[in-house]
Write a structure and sequence with these properties.
Aspartate Aminotransferase, domain 2, 14% strand, binds pyridoxal-5'-phosphate, 4-stranded mixed sheet, Aspartate Aminotransferase, domain 1, alpha/beta, 424 residues, 7-stranded mixed sheet, 2 domains
Length: 424
């Protein structure tokens, strides 16, 4: 069956034909591909067409598809059981690895997705502080938890959903939304509501309005103000943990949050998330403390061994310099190609996460991200797909590289991109 035939069938069976909205390619048009298999930095659709993959499952696959060490760990565990519902020794190993990589995390609770991690972290912050307001930033996406879907990025931005039908106003009104990278707005909000704010949740490097790094002083101001008003600072490192450095964005920018949310790379491609922080905070989580949170599949051994194999490889090989070099080479060359064609663009990149915006202005928050020419993005996306390069099907997302992307793969991707750009 072709991509189109399968997608038509899918649309009759699953809303939009997908299990997660952006996969429907609504923002870019054209038929979504249906995947058959993947290996290294390449992915194939059901028609046998091959693509160089810069989506990388939206971030988890820092080692590429089917890394031998990861496959072996999963095969071994497969013989020993899929799920126990009782603590397994691998969880303790992974907890130890997380704690050793991030000094701000002394205890960790495993969950099954990034959404669960942020949702649970918010409950913990409210329970710990006894306050109800939360602060988030426009264009940041923290999963699909009710209180965090206000002015969200990622699929909410992609589909231009203004509010969130299904989220009662009473819940949305407890979320204060501020512009990213704007210290003045932050100060004003704290002056007004400081005593009632339980926490600020932030993507320390935003990836869900496209990649937007924090400006100098933004994370520092967040840390200072939350401390001053005894609110908790939550770093949502679902996208950045083990991606931008071993210790995440908090290591890169030397800021210690109170709670860290993890996902994506920590599970190496299996459903795994986590939240963690200082002992005095985490000890409030049940059964140690009164704040309830649980999960039938939490700490699932298949997911955990996948995470251990991925992180072990990353910790041993320390691939961040290699990822930096390959990603920089891709961006520099891509920028040259676009400049030669006279296409205005700005590329934001931190290590191996990056976004090409079709504007020549600086992109530092959601409103500047939205100034990108979305029509040009859609054309660019479709031309790349035709030539065999897969990037996220939305302007408001990040591309990811993996250790499987060699210089030769990047060169091949660049010649495909060059052909694609000439055809626009
Ligand atoms: N937080 C951030 C920063 C994310 O990028 C995402 C997903 O893209 C989430 C939370 C939600 O994670 P999940 O899709 O695993 O629920």
């Amino acid at each position: 069956m072709t991509n189109r035939e399968l997608f038509e069938k899918a649309r009759g069976l699953m809303p939009g034909g997908v299990s997660s909205p952006v996969r429907a390619f609504k923002a870019v048009g054209g038929d979504p591909i249906i995947v058959s298999h993947a290996k290294g930095c390449r992915i194939w659709d059901v028609e046998g067409k091959e693509y160089i993959d810069f989506l990388m499952s939206w971030g988890p696959l820092i080692l590429g598809h089917c890394h031998p060490r990861v496959v072996k760990a999963l095969e071994d565990q497969l013989q020993k059981g899929l799920s126990y519902g009782i603590t397994n020794a691998h969880e303790i190993t992974l907890a130890q690895m997380v704690v050793s990589a991030m000094p701000s995390v002394q205890m960790v609770r495993f969950v099954s997705s990034g959404t669960e991690a942020t949702m649970s972290a918010i409950r913990l912050a409210r329970g710990y502080t006894g306050r109800k307001y939360i602060v988030k930033f426009e264009g940041c996406y923290h999963g699909h938890y009710d209180g965090l879907l206000v002015s969200a990025g990622s699929g909410v931005a992609t589909l231009g959903i203004p509010g969130t039908p299904g989220v009662p106003e009473e819940i949305a009104s407890l979320t204060l939304v501020l512009p990213y990278n704007n210290v003045e707005a932050l100060k004003e909000a704290f002056e007004k509501y400081g005593e009632d704010i339980a926490c600020v949740i932030v993507e320390p490097i935003a990836g869900n309005m496209g990649t937007v790094p924090p400006k100098d002083g933004f994370l520092e101001a967040l840390r200072e103000l939350t401390r001053k008003y005894s609110a908790l600072l939550i770093f949502d490192e679902v996208m950045t943990n083990f991606r931008v450095s071993k210790g995440g964005a908090q290591e890169l920018y030397s800021i210690e949050p109170d709670i860290t949310c993890m996902g994506k790379v920590i599970g190496g491609g299996m459903p795994l998330g986590a939240y963690g922080g200082r002992k005095e905070i985490m000890e409030k989580v049940a059964p140690e403390g009164p704040i309830y949170q649980a999960g039938t599949l939490s700490g699932n051994p298949m997911a955990v061994v996948c995470g251990i194999a991925t992180l072990s490889e990353v910790f041993e090989k320390n691939p961040y310099e290699q990822l930096e070099q390959t990603s920089k080479y891709l961006c520099d060359s891509l920028s040259e190609i676009l400049s030669r064609k006279g296409i205005p663009h700005t590329i934001n990149r931190v290590g191996s996460m990056l976004t090409v915006f079709f504007t020549d202005k600086e992109v530092y928050d959601y409103s500047t991200a939205k100034s990108s020419d979305l029509g040009m993005f859609a054309k660019f996306f479709r031309a790349l797909l035709r030539e065999g390069v897969l990037i996220p099907p939305s302007q408001f997302e990040a591309w990811f590289l993996s250790t499987a992307h060699t210089r030769e793969d990047i060169d091949q991707a660049l010649s495909r991109i060059e052909r694609a750009v000439s055809s626009i």
